[in-house]
Amino acid sequence: MKKLLIILFAAFTSWSCVDDCTQTRTYRATVPFQVGIEQVRAGISTEGPQDLVKPGKIYAYDNYLIINEVKKGLHIIDNTNPSSPVKLSFLKIPGVIDMAVRNNILYADSYTDLVALDITNPKSIKEVGRVRNMFNYGLVDGISWYYDPYSKIVTDYEFKTVTQTVSTNCGQNGTVWPVFRGGVAFDSFQGNTNSSGNTSGGTGTGGSMARFTIHDDYLYAATQSDLLVFSIKTGQKPDSVNKINLGWGIETIFPYKDKLFIGSNTGMYIYDNINPASPQRLSIFQHARACDPVVVENDKAYVTLRQGWCGAAPNQLDVVDVRNLGSPFLIKSYQMENPHGLSVLNSKLTVCEGKYGLKSYDAKESTDLKLQQHIKNIHAFDVIQLNDKLLLMIGEDGLYQYDNSDPKNLKLLSKIEVKK
Amino acid sequence: MKKIFILAIIGSLVLNISFAQKEKLFKYPFVNQTEFGVLFGRVKNANYSYYYPSYSSYWPNPTPNGYSLQNVANLSIQTFNGFQVRKKTTVGLTTGFDMYSSSVLVPVALGLRHVIYEKNEQGAKLQAGIDAGYGATFGASKNSYEDVTGGILINPTIGFKFPTRNGSAWLVNFGYKYQYMEVSQNFDESDFYNIASVETKNLNRFQVRLGFQF
Hints:
The complex is a heterodimer of chains A (420) and B (214). Chain A is mainly beta and 420 residues long. Chain A has helices spanning 2-14, 37-41; strands at 20-36, 45-47, 55-61, 64-69, 73-78, 86-92, 99-102, 105-110, 113-118, 126-131, 137-140, 143-148, 153-168, 205-206, 212-215, 218-222, 226-231, 239-245, 250-256, 259-264, 267-272, 280-286, 294-297, 300-305, 316-321, 329-335, 342-345, 348-352, 358-362, 370-375, 382-385, 390-394, 398-403, 411-417. Chain B has two helices and nine strands. Chain B has helices at 2-14, 17-21; strands spanning 30-49, 63-84, 89-99, 104-118, 125-136, 146-149, 152-163, 169-185, 194-213. At the A-B interface, helix 1, strand 1 and strand 13 of A face strand 1, strand 2, strand 8 and strand 9 of B.
């Protein structure tokens, strides 16, 4: 009895009727950091093989495989035997996003500059040429960077996970803390295209995320808004010859015959490339705002649209007839789950479905694509069919190589793991 | 004591009012106390200064700059069902609805009622009570934006019992109610920036209850 009274007394005296509420939030923020341009330019070096951490685009050249480590450098891999690829070296290039190779000269972007590197000996790569201040801003993985020519400083951003706790008013007047919804456009692996397009001899095959492509003696580099044309007649000395304004939201570039197919997030542009130094616009195939890589084969363009930061279109695959380049028209749309990169070769169509895996289609009949195989439980961003037998696929977990001779039964040859 | 306790719990679960008429079935008389209450509390509206640099999506913690208090009141309905194990002591189970602003919680608590003081058996009595248990969310309306999980509740009270002639009684109780609650926000899968957000709520309320016992 006494005890109870004491407890009650203690409770009554120590109580306060003010609510005590706290909110703990974990979110990803972009935090800026700055690098002087001289430091960027001095930053190229060849190092020993390293683990894949955050792979970006892929590029195949001869027996080599080049995997981009976003903004850090390039992994050079000897892929003579696809069943057991060997990491040769890691080429450190600050700010590298795209690359293309012709005649043992690797062209890559390094923030503002286009650099040419001699990769004859992959273990000791030499810088042989540089075109300065070609790019002033860029966007990859939802992070943009820009260059201020007056202060000569590149401002880039990196993601940081932040956890914060604040006290709240217990949800009495709605949320105190505004919920952050974006701010920087994001889409992992922006821009997907360029599988085994029509490339001339001595040139490699771009991963389907490429914004760089080589046609004849010209290197095409798409920025967010422009198409830059470089003459690479003398490999070591790339020369800027043209700059074509494309509009906004350019994602990918795909060469097909003497045409360039450019994927933007509002449509597909077709450029006539008969005069490679100055491509002319032929037509636009417009679609809802979405992320959309494009590939072309046999006068049929395959465009995947997916939901993401580039837009909110339905997830689908559009097959577009481009026989008459002046007026492309839609043949059929197919429902997809979350399509990313795709590749078509000899009517074998392969579509990456992000976390839903990899799908292989028979594309002989464009009005009736037949699903051949669906590999689930892997993450697939982007795919290249190098030839009839070899398929390269990259995802968040690593680089997979498949034997593609039977589209109904893709055989895994090897996997280069991403270090978690 | 333990046996009585278990019996009381099972008994009050099984028993309803029609059962209660057959008093001989159980050793102890059945008691029901049903009360309507209001939970009075105050919340702090902090005056935060936010500093969000325009060049970054990194938001530093806001700077607290004092706060204002806001009064809030919530409705509560509860029923206590138990057995009078001693002349002055009743044990049982308490359940009902607590209508907090974030969610309606269903308390499931063990309850104890004890008469501390009485002048005579017919007169008004001073009664102390305590309920301790869990505030559950079942039956609460759900939405896809947030998940509410309940938590521990402690509810000591003190009040008056005014017996009527037929053996029933009117109740007036004053108490304190502590309730823990967690509200976690659900973010869309495509939401790259927001990873998690959990709000923990320690609700401290002053309670006034009016009710009836038979």
